Amino acid sequence: MQLTETAAGKVRELLEQEGQVDIALRVAVQPGGCSGLRYSMLLDDQFGDSDLMVEQHGVRLVTDRMSAPYLSQATIDFVDSLEASGFTIDNPVAAGTCACGHSFH
Q1: Is 103 helix (H, G, I), strand (E, B) or coil?
Q2: Which of 8, 27, 69, 82 is deepest in the core (most CB within 10 A)?
Q3: How many CB atoms lie within 10 A of CB 28?
Q4: pLDDT tens digits, one per residue of 71-81
Q5: What pLDDT, on a 0 to 100 scale, did the predictor assign at position 87?
Q6: How many CA atoms lie within 13 A of 53 on its CB side?
């Protein structure tokens, strides 16, 4: 899983707003959506022994072992344009996505 420098900057900005710098960005895959799986991203300070953690661009990324194979080649970015604003995940491992773009298989 790769975090772009733009996305890392946005995460650092959010952490500074919260006043908590020792929190990680947790990225996971969960059952749901019209295609079977959906992404979950949240700021988290609870880590388990089975979690995988890496640091990129000054941001800690955490994922659970079940999600790791689905996210191994994913790139997390942040876009801010007139059309859209938010985090995006480009994942070449995903075989297909639903029409709304919120889930994959």
Answers
A1: strand
A2: 27
A3: 19
A4: 999 999 999 88
A5: 92
A6: 15
Q: Domain 2-94 adopts which CATH fold? A: Hypothetical Protein Aq_1857; Chain: A; (2.60.300)
Alpha-carbon distance 13 to 29, whole Å? 24
Q: What is the mean pLDDT of residues 71-97?
A: 85
Residues linked to residue 52 through DSSP beta bridges, in sequence order: 63
85-90, strands of its sheet edge to edge: 2-3, 75-80, 85-90
Alpha carbon 34 to its chain centroid, in Å, reads 19
Q: Which of 43, 38, 74 is nearest to 59 (CA)?
A: 43
69: left (phi over 0), alpha (psi -120 to 50) or beta: alpha
